[in-house]
Specification:
- With 168 residues, the protein is mainly alpha-helical.
- The protein has helices spanning 2-22, 32-55, 59-81, 95-109, 114-138, 143-151, 153-167.
- The two termini are 27 Å apart.
Length: 168
């Protein structure tokens, strides 16, 4: 499985270069920095996959770990690319660093045990929704934007539910 994971990450990193070369009208215009940042993100995701495999555990635990990593990756990627709230430069997007911090620190404090990981993921989902609540109170964001941002709580909730099931 390892070659598939790392090879898939390399293909994902190669894809924008291929699109830029073959379909310039597509509007994909990545800089060297864009490729470097995405390379670091993909390496982190693959490294976390390796860590999860090393931890072992049931298939449900590993699925929860995978969903949590995917939620974190997508949170970072969306915020860097377009921003969850406003544009990528909007200071409101810094709230999602807190969401990631809660998930990561909670996982560390739980020593990656399923029951504690469940609590950390549920806390991350709550933090995601709290960020949306704060954005609503501040104002200036569209309803669809707020709904999509709130929807990012779903993978955190799914990861929490999978960890809760794995803890039984």
């Amino acid at each position: 499985m390892r070659p598939l994971v790392w090879g898939g990450a390399a293909c994902l990193l190669f894809l924008p270069a291929l699109v830029m070369r073959l379909y310039p009208q597509a509007g994909v215009d990545w800089t060297a920095l864009d490729f470097a940042v995405m390379g670091v993100l993909l390496a982190a995701v693959c490294g976390l996959y390796e860590f999860a495999a090393w931890l072992g555990g049931s298939l449900v635990y590993r699925a929860g770990f995978g969903v949590a990593v995917l939620a974190g990756f997508l949170t970072i990627w969306v915020n860097l690319a377009v921003g969850m709230l406003g544009s990528e430069g909007n200071v409101a997007n810094l709230m999602f660093v807190g969401v990631l911090g809660i998930a990561g620190l909670g996982s560390l404090l739980a020593r990656f045990r399923a029951a504690g990981m469940a609590n950390a993921m549920f806390a991350a989902a709550l933090a995601q929704l709290a960020a949306v609540g704060i954005a609503m109170a501040v104002g200036g964001f569209g309803e669809r934007e707020l709904a999509l941002t709130a929807g990012f709580a779903l993978p955190w909730l799914l990861a929490g539910a999978l960890f809760r099931y794995a803890a039984r």
